[in-house]
Design goal:
The complex is a heterodimer. In chain A, strands 1-2-3-4-5-6 form a 6-stranded antiparallel barrel. Chain A has one domain (about 5-100). Chain A has one helix at about 45, and strands spanning about 5-10, 20-25, 25-40, 60-70, 75-85, 90-95, 100. The relative contact order of chain A is 0.26. Chain A contains 1 helix and 7 strands. Chain B is an alpha/beta fold. Chain B has 6 domains: about 20-295, TIM Barrel (Alpha-Beta Barrel); about 305-455 and about 530-585, no CATH class; about 455-525, Arc Repressor Mutant, subunit A, CATH 1.10.10; about 595-635 and about 660-800, no CATH class; about 815-985 and about 1005-1030, no CATH class; about 1040-1165, OB fold (Dihydrolipoamide Acetyltransferase, E2P). Chain B contains 49 helices and 22 strands. In chain B, strand 2 and strand 3 (about 75-85) form a beta hairpin. Classes of the chains: A mainly beta, B alpha/beta. The interface between A and B is medium-sized, with 25 and 30 residues.
Chain lengths: ~100, ~1150
């Protein structure tokens, strides 16, 4: 899972759990408990360096699967969003309802 | 509340763990943990280091292991086993025995994997004495149960866990719940953990939480990937069982608690479930806290029971008696004054030994020493043990400490409670026999070999990093060859600095994969790869040794401890260093050759020039002609003459280029000079400029200088320069009035940043109080501070100097036997071919391989006067003297040849051995030697059953030339090779073979005599090339001979000419590289010494920074070198070259030929070595 699509703004709880997404022009509120895992990367293909002291984010990415809706009326959509430890930024890697994997 | 990690692999889990025990313990302590486990794979490899790390971090150690479980010889999963603590070692004992069980029957010859059956495991879990559980087995995600759950085979998991519960005693089983938060459905996901936790709850089995730690922090994850790749010998891209992600690190308590909550919530067990999981973890941790002292015998010295060596009385009394008896033997006929000195020294040593309770230790070592000598094996003690009179009286060491001013406290004092080291050098060829005898003598329950850890160094690291990245093996190999003696951890730094990496550096700029290669190489730096048998350590203990150390098979078949030398003192283990020294074997071989070729005392004495002026035979030659090397007086003038000539190739420790330069300058005249020489030739003194002032004072170029007259007695032997530890001890003693024991403690603290200020304070206060002037105190302190860490223990130097002297003595008096011993056992730093060149230089003939005369050894042979020199056409042996030094005959006190002894006429030569032939197996060799002599090729084929390929090799090497001459064959060597290429490969058919008892007709060799002469005899160049290919030795002539025309065109000088040139002459030399060294140097800038041999001697070329830049990639890779430089005189008999430029002699296009178009140069240069 090395290719990422779009950058997304995420608001988190103090314990690091995502609460809101800001994607496109809309804000999504995260409903239900999100699922979180760490997914391996083929760092030896994707990275130019792997020096000692490189730290988090080289071997795996933290992925959250969240269900969110823009407002009370809109339907729940499922997003996989990835946190990049080295830059501190979030990206959307998958939008399930759209049944399309984003890769660019 | 803190959290205790119970499943942690350290870096000592080879090719698995990433972090060092001290990093892990420090991190755990910093997070507030009060205990930490070390559960290395397959053994206790990191356990003692873990104990030490925990002690300094102030936490309790927990000891365990991560082992495979076997079923019908197959691994069915892995479990962690933890020892219970505070039960007087019952848990630790069971753990040691269990691990030894797991390794029993494994090893190189066996296909059995390391592991344990459930039944074996169950039987070790209960203490045989109390029948209570002393081990706990953790069934985790890698166990058979965990794997079945991961594969959704729930009923199988249930039956597996039932089996565990049935087999294992109550209270010795727990479930190990782990989540690395991997993606749902994968191994080590939270779901995986939940299933195991639920199953445990269902079975009423306690469940604990771990993180199956492989690295201290997140950064280690990539290193773990590379280690997985190296373990599987598979590129990362193709590796099927990579860790699912990089979460196996030593997570802090806060995160571990969050994980517990997450698992419990997913398992619908709520907060109570998380609390239960964490509480069970801490409960088990508490049960497993180790008391290093009462459980593991921390720092309590243990030696064999004296009853084993037949001592019934109190050991101290026995030791007294034996020492008293030794005085009579060692000091027969001494004066009353001497007797008082000896007696008071003995009282002093015995008082300390008695107080430390080490008398049985000395009795044990004496027993081993006696046993080795009794086997007829050459042995010499080395190291600081030579400082002890007790050792001298017990015949453990052979240097009289009183005569050389050696101080007992340097070896042992009341302020040290660890067992001292006594090292014994034995003949390398006999080492394994000695080990076996020690095992027999003390019993296998009391003895084990020590192991050593082999860590990644630059070359291995770059190879495995390249493998992980899937790079081409040859490309990586090419890079690896460029790496020369720097730590892998500083690869990137080295790339910027080292000229030989220049090309590689620029490739890195272009190829980004190489950038990764450098990073991964640095990650692997120093990590342990595997353990192996230590080259000399043998551990001796009491009958409970195997309760304290797990053992596994060694390459030798004898059991090997999982502990290395760093673990000995902490575990109170007695390690005896029995080191195999090839030089001892070489000398033993030479002594046997001397008596074989000169079979009487009279012949030996005459041949070696040993007769006294009155013609009598000296005492060291016994009635039957055996030379007792240890009895040879240490003042033989021809020996020192040889040493001063610097023609010391082959001599112990003084053959390296740097040493040859130093002995040239120092010009040793006696044994004490040799001790000083050996002590000076060390990194410290060379680096700190001790050598120059010493030499200036020694040769009287500068006046001797003592900081204070009180120091003169201690420093006089080295002209005021502090060289020895003993002198530092004396200095402390004189200036502060402290005892020698205290002085040695102070000496050890020098150079230690934390301890040194207190030492300085003490020294200054006491010295001023004793009325030494301030400027003297300043000066002396400066000396102590700067030299103490470099200085050398004189006892070591004295012990080392003995074999140095003995080897030089043999070379001076019996050069043929000496060199045969050197060829046979190959003890030194140089390739054999250089020593062959040395023999040629000394005028000793190298006799060619001969199917009827060569054996499996290099033998001295008498050459009948009628026989022409071997290798006709080679122009005979060169007659030069090397670098203008005296010829062997002159310096040897009479040439050992043609001395008119009746029946012993003829020169001595050395016959090449069949053992050196490439491709000839040991069994073929044995058959050839057993069947000698042969009267025909058919005879050889029939009786020795030599393969066709080897028959051809023998022919190529001229082994049939003599037979061919006898048969008056007319064919050349080339004709014979041609014939063998076309002849049938098998021996004569059975029906043509003579039946048993039937004699063959003595027809001679029709095959040889029938050869049609068609092809010319191969030229010398071709013969030499063949010899290099098949023997790695240019025996018939020197390799460089074939380059002669090219060298003449280039205007190259020969080694033997250099000494006649003025200092500072610019010359070119050429030769084969025989040694490359990068000794540490003053100022920290690297200097590279390259020695080349051109057949007339060796030229030692020094490459300083600029020359290294010029030479670049040639520095370490090229075999045949052309070097330009300035001559530099190093002493009366020594000259070297300061290089300015170098070329590859075999690369004709790059050579600085006067005319670039010279065809001659190109043709010749393209030829010989390729």
């Amino acid at each position: 899972m090395g290719l990422f699509s779009e950058s997304v703004e995420v608001v988190c709880s103090p314990s690091g759990q995502p609460l809101r997404l800001q994607w496109g022009n809309r804000s999504y509120k995260i409903a239900a408990d999100p699922l979180r895992w760490y997914e391996r990367r083929k760092w030896w293909e994707e990275e130019l360096r792997a020096e000692r002291g490189r730290g988090a984010g080289l071997v795996d990415h933290e992925i959250w699967r969240v269900q969110a809706r823009a407002n009370e009326q809109s339907e729940l959509r499922t997003f996989d969003i990835a946190y990049q430890a080295d830059t501190g930024r979030w990206r959307i890697v998958k939008i399930h309802d759209a049944v399309r994997e984003l890769s660019a | 509340m803190s959290f205790t990690h119970l499943h942690v692999s350290t870096a000592f889990s080879a090719h698995y763990g990433v972090s060092w025990p001290d990093e892990l313990a420090a991190a755990a302590a910093a997070d507030g943990a009060s205990a930490l486990a070390c559960t290395d794979r397959d053994g206790l490899y990191g356990t003692v280091k873990h104990l030490k790390a925990c002690a300094s971090a102030g936490i309790d150690p927990i000891a365990g292991v991560d082992l495979a479980v076997l079923d019908h010889g197959q691994a069915i999963g892995r479990v962690v086993i933890l020892a219970h603590g505070h039960i007087q070692g019952a848990g630790y004992r069971a753990l040691c025995r269990l691990i030894s069980d797991a390794h029993a029957g494994t090893g190189a010859q066996s296909h059995q994997p390391v592991g344990i059956t459930m039944e074996e495991l169950a039987s070790r879990c209960l203490d045989p004495a109390t029948l209570t559980p002393v081990l706990t087995v953790l069934l985790g995600p890698y166990s058979d149960v965990g794997q079945a759950l991961r594969a959704h085979r729930y009923s199988m998991a249930r039956s597996l866990i039932s089996r565990w519960q049935q087999l294992m005693p109550d209270g010795s089983l727990a479930a190990e719940v782990v989540t690395h938060l991997s993606p749902p459905g994968q191994s080590l996901s939270t779901g995986h953990a939940v299933k195991l936790y639920k199953l445990a709850a269902e079975r009423n089995l306690p469940a604990v939480l771990t993180n199956a730690v492989r690295y201290c922090d997140i950064d280690g994850a990539a290193t773990a990937d590379v280690l997985d790749s190296a373990r599987a010998l598979t590129a990362l891209e193709k590796l099927s069982d990579l860790q699912p992600n990089g979460q196996g690190w030593l997570k802090p308590a806060r995160q571990m608690k969050a994980l517990a909550a997450e698992i419990s919530k997913a398992a619908d067990l709520g907060r109570a479930g998380a609390t239960r999981l964490l509480a069970a973890t801490e409960e088990l941790a508490d049960r497993c806290r180790m008391d290093p002292v009462s459980d593991m015998g921390w720092k309590q010295p243990v030696v064999p029971e004296v009853s084993v060596i037949g001592v019934e009385s109190e050991p101290l009394t026995e030791l007294w008696n034996r020492c008293e008896a030794g005085i009579g033997r060692r000091f027969a006929g001494m004066s009353h004054q001497q007797e008082e000195r000896v007696q008071s020294r003995l009282d002093h040593e015995m008082r300390i030994i008695g107080r430390l309770g080490f008398s049985s230790y000395f009795l044990t070592v004496a027993e081993v020493s006696k046993m080795i000598t009794g086997m007829g094996v050459r042995a010499a003690a080395r190291g600081s043990g030579a400082s002890s009179l007790v050792n001298y009286l017990l015949h453990i060491s052979h240097v009289n400490p009183l005569e050389h001013g050696l101080i007992f406290e340097r070896f042992l004092s009341q302020d040290r409670s660890t067992l001292p080291d006594i090292d014994i050098d034995v003949e390398s060829a006999e080492r394994h026999n000695v080990y076996h005898r020690i095992f027999e003598r003390f019993g296998p329950e009391r003895v084990t070999l020590m192991s050593m850890q082999n860590g990644y160094r630059a070359r291995g690291a770059v190879r495995d990093a390249g493998l992980a990245l899937g790079m081409d093996e040859d490309d990586v190999g090419t890079i690896a060859k460029q790496l020369w003696r720097f730590s892998a951890g500083k690869f990137r730094e080295a790339m910027a600095e080292k000229p030989e990496l220049r090309d590689f550096s620029s490739q890195v700029d272009q190829n980004q994969q190489l950038d990764l290669l450098v990073d991964l190489t640095e990650r692997l730096d120093r990590l342990p790869r595997h353990i192996s048998m230590h080259p000399c350590g043998v551990i001796l203990g009491d009958k409970n040794l195997l309760d304290r150390s797990p053992v596994q098979p060694s390459g030798l078949g004898l059991p090997m401890s999982q502990f290395d030398k760093h673990d000995m003192d902490p575990m109170g283990m007695l390690k005896l260093d029995v080191l195999g020294v090839r030089m001892q074997s070489s000398m033993a071989y030479a002594l046997n050759e001397i008596i074989r070729i000169h079979p009487s005392a009279a012949e030996v004495a005459s041949a070696g020039g040993h007769r006294k002026p009155d013609g009598s035979i000296p005492d060291f030659i016994s009635g039957d002609g055996q030379i007792s090397l240890d009895a040879v007086p240490l003042d033989d003038e021809p020996t020192y003459e040889l040493i001063r000539s610097t023609h010391t190739l082959g001599c112990f420790q003084i053959e390296s280029p740097g040493q040859r330069e130093l002995i040239g300058k120092l010009a040793p005249a006696g044994f004490n000079d040799l001790i000083i020489d050996i002590s000076l030739f060390r990194p410290g003194p060379m680096k700190s400029d001790m050598v120059r002032p010493f030499l200036e004072h020694r040769h009287g170029w500068a006046p001797e200088n003592y900081p204070h007259p009180d120091l003169k007695p201690a420093l006089a032997e080295t002209h005021g320069v502090t060289v020895f530890h003993e002198q530092i001890l004396h200095t402390f003693h004189v200036f502060t009035g402290c005892s020698m024991a205290q002085a040695d403690v102070l000496r050890r603290q020098l150079g230690d940043e934390d301890a040194e200020p207190a030492v300085e304070e003490f020294f200054r206060t006491r010295a001023i109080a004793r009325n030494y002037p301030l400027e003297v105190v300043d000066k002396v302190w400066h000396t102590l501070k700067s030299f103490a860490s470099f200085g050398f223990c004189k006892a070591h130097g004295a012990a080392f100097a003995v074999p140095t002297y003995q080897s030089a003595w043999l070379k001076a008096h019996h050069p043929e036997a000496f060199l045969a011993g050197i060829f046979e056992h190959d003890p030194g730093m140089y390739p054999r071919r250089l020593l062959v060149a040395e023999a040629r230089r000394l005028g000793i003939e190298i006799l060619p391989l001969d199917i009827n005369r060569s054996t499996g050894q290099y033998r001295v042979e008498r050459i009948p006067d009628t026989e022409p020199p071997a290798g006709e056409g080679s122009g005979g042996p060169p007659v030069g003297n090397g670098c203008g030094g005296p010829a062997a005959g002159e310096s040897n006190g009479g040439p050992p040849v043609g001395n008119g002894e009746p029946g012993s006429g003829g020169r001595l030569g050395i016959r090449l051995s069949l053992a050196g032939i490439y491709g000839l197996s040991r069994t073929e060799l044995k058959r050839i030697v057993a069947g000698q002599p042969y009267d025909s090729l058919a005879d050889l084929r029939t009786r020795a059953r030599v393969s066709r390929a080897n028959l051809k090799r023998l022919a190529q090497l001229g082994a049939f030339d003599a037979l061919n001459r006898t048969m008056q064959g007319k064919g050349s060597r080339a004709d014979l090779i041609h014939h063998l290429n076309s002849a049938p490969s098998r021996p004569a058919q059975r029906k043509h073979q003579p039946a048993a008892g039937q004699l063959t007709l003595p027809l001679g060799d029709l095959e040889l005599s029938g050869l049609k002469p068609q092809l010319p005899e191969p030229g010398m160049t071709e013969k030499v090339r063949t010899e290099l290919d098949l023997l790695s030795v240019d025996a018939s002539a020197h390799l460089m001979d074939s380059y002669r025309p090219l060298l003449e065109e280039l205007g190259v000088r020969q080694a033997e000419e250099l000494l006649q040139l003025r200092n500072g002459t610019e010359v070119m030399v050429a030769g084969i590289r025989v040694a490359t060294q990068t000794p540490p140097m003053r100022g920290g800038r690297r200097v590279v010494f390259i020695s080349v041999d051109d057949g007339t001697g060796c030229v030692d070329c020094t490459f300083f920074h600029e020359a290294q830049q010029q030479a670049g990639p040639l520095l370490f890779g090229t075999e045949l070198l052309l070097v330009k430089g300035i001559t530099r005189r190093t002493g009366p008999k020594g000259i070297g070259l300061q290089a300015t430029a170098a070329w590859d002699l075999s690369d004709a296009d790059t050579l600085p030929l006067p005319e670039r178009s010279s065809r001659l140069g190109r043709e010749t240069a393209a030829g010989p070595l390729k």
